[in-house]
């Protein structure tokens, strides 16, 4: 496999020979001047490898050689479909409204910007920044932006809660202080926690479920974090997603990334709900967060506090811009990082209008790689009891992608699109088939179509007797 998998294995201190255990039926049909097809294949391969390795250790092989790990196969059509899941998603035959009318590229007075207004609170903040009322159309937004400087809008948005970024060239991004800060961060970071270890045996597992008995609290939104926790659910984890009732998720987006998970609502501003979260944390193996760095600290959810109170906990964190630098605490999404980093400029059309990758590949890759890192950490915790913190960011994934040689884009080869249809109380849900099955394991999600926020904030089942805490 390619450079992205090798970098993941190096940064996570896994055996480099594991890359030899991957086979692919051909290139992933995602066409771009950047090696996004290789990024997608390698990210899925990392997830499959770490699941296979964890399963091997759980069945009694304490320190396996790479040659003992079952080979994993990459199905290009499945990977392409998984990465383009928002494009393939259907609800009663209708496509997903992936982009709101005020989300997209707009010409400023001195360049281009990209906005993100899919969520109502971001749309409200954008209108407020531009001094537009709630009835203003996309044309009115375009006119208001055309009178403003891209960089001024970018900074004012960061201060106001709106999401706008200037479209930069790769050269300009390389000179930006945030890009400089990312140079000191790993592609993926796994940090073992010192001090007391926890008694966190995972017990035995059958060949289909390497994460059987593992409990995951999912505090993520949008794509990257939910893809990570969906992957953990696919391999058997009990994943409970928690959201604030005041921050509704887009229904189709939850259905597109919520397969195999349960979803409940807690208001952390309300003490009984905070107490409930504390109880859930007591029995959690993994906590995955997808909010801006430090934004959850006021609720006692910083990595330091979590590790102090829950020795042996594995914490997975995905951010837009990384953990350091002037933009670390700014809002960001895949499309916004593509704009800021130069990816959008590379994909500009003949008229100079910025473009995008053929899929939201930064989000999906960060999600699969984070799931892989979490499984790597769980395997090590299984052996020594220590907790871990696993970090990845969309901007660091973008930086790795941009660092690779560019190639002329080619037409994607014809491929069979594989989707799954499920009947739910709300109608027929069509979603992309999973791309991460491993040898002798399941090839389907446990369930599809569970509504957002419909479950109780509690673990699904008591722990099995062979899991010791």
Give descriptors for this structure.
16 strands, seven-stranded mixed sheet, alpha/beta, disordered C terminus, 469 residues, Rossmann fold, single chain, four-stranded antiparallel sheet
Shape: globular
Q: The CATH topology of the domain at 3-96 and 187-326 and 358-432, please?
A: Rossmann fold
Counting helices, strands and paired strands, the structural category is: alpha/beta
CATH homologous superfamily identity of the domain at 3-96 and 187-326 and 358-432: Crotonobetainyl-coa:carnitine coa-transferase, domain 1
Helix content: 25-40%
**Tally of strands:** 16
The CATH architecture of the domain at 3-96 and 187-326 and 358-432: 3-Layer(aba) Sandwich
Q: Which oligomerization state do the chains in this entry correspond to?
A: single chain
Tell me the strand percentage band: 5-15%
* Tally of contiguous helical segments: 17
Specify the biggest β-sheet. Answer: 7 strands, mixed
* Low-pLDDT stretches: 465-469
Q: Tell me the span between the first and last alpha carbons.
A: 38 Å
Task: Give a written overview of the molecule.
With 469 residues, the chain is an alpha/beta fold. It has a domain at 3-96 and 187-326 and 358-432: Crotonobetainyl-coa:carnitine coa-transferase, domain 1 (Rossmann fold, 3-Layer(aba) Sandwich). The protein is 36% helix and 14% strand. It has helices at 3-11, 36-58, 76-83, 85-88, 120-129, 138-146, 150-160, 170-174, 177-182, 224-234, 251-257, 271-282, 303-309, 334-341, 343-346, 361-384, 394-402; strands spanning 22-24, 72-74, 90-91, 94-95, 104-107, 112-115, 164-166, 189-192, 215-219, 238-243, 262-265, 286-289, 314-319, 388-393, 419-424, 427-432. It has a seven-stranded mixed beta sheet with strand order 8-14-13-12-9-10-11, with helices on both faces. The chain has a four-stranded antiparallel beta sheet with strand order 4-3-16-15. Helix 10 (224-234) links the parallel strand 9 and strand 10 (238-243). The radius of gyration is 21 Å and the shape is globular.
């Amino acid at each position: 496999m390619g450079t992205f998998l090798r970098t993941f294995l190096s940064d996570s201190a896994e055996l480099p020979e594991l890359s030899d255990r991957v086979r692919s039926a051909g290139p992933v049909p995602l066409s771009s001047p950047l090696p996004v097809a290789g990024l997608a294949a390698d990210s899925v391969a990392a997830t499959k490898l770490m699941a296979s390795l964890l399963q091997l250790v759980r069945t009694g092989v304490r320190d396996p050689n790479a040659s003992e790990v079952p080979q994993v196969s990459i199905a290009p059509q499945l990977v392409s479909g998984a990465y383009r899941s928002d494009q393939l998603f259907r609800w009663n035959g209708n496509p997903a409204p992936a982009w709101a009318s005020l989300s997209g590229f707009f010409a400023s007075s001195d360049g281009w910007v990209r906005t993100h207004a899919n969520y109502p609170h971001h749309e409200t903040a954008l209108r407020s920044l531009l001094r537009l009322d709630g009835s203003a159309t996309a044309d009115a937004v375009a006119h208001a932006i055309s009178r403003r400087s891209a960089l001024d809008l970018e900074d004012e948005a960061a201060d106001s809660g709106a999401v706008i970024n200037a479209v930069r060239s790769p050269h300009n991004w390389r000179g930006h202080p945030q890009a400089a800060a990312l140079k000191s961060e790993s592609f993926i970071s796994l940090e073992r926690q010192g001090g007391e270890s926890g008694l966190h045996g995972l017990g035995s597992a059958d060949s289909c479920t390497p994460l059987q008995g593992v409990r995951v609290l999912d505090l993520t939104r949008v794509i990257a974090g939910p893809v990570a926790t969906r992957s953990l659910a696919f391999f058997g984890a009990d994943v409970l997603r928690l959201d604030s009732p005041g921050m509704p998720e887009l229904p189709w987006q939850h259905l597109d990334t919520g397969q195999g998970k349960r979803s409940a609502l807690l208001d952390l501003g309300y003490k009984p709900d905070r107490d409930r979260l504390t109880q859930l944390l007591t029995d959690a193996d993994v906590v995955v967060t997808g909010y801006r760095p430090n934004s959850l600290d006021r609720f006692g959810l910083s990595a330091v506090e979590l590790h102090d109170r829950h020795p042996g906990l594995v914490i997975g964190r995905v951010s837009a811009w990384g953990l350091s630098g002037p933009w670390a605490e700014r809002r960001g999404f895949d499309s916004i990082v593509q704009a800021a980093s130069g990816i959008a400029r590379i994909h500009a059309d003949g008229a100079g209008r910025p473009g995008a990758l053929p899929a939201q590949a930064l989000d999906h890759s960060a999600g699969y790689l984070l799931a892989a890192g979490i499984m790597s950490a769980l395997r090590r915790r299984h052996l020594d009891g220590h907790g871990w913190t696993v970090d990845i960011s969309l901007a660091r994934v973008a930086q790795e992608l941009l660092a690779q040689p560019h190639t002329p884009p080619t037409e994607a080869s014809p491929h069979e699109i594989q989707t799954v249809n499920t009947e739910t109380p709300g109608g027929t849900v069509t979603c992309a088939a999973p791309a991460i099955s491993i040898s002798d394991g399941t090839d389907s999600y446990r369930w599809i179509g569970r509504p957002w926020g419909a479950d109780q904030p509690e673990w699904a089942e008591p722990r099995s007797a062979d899991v010791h805490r």
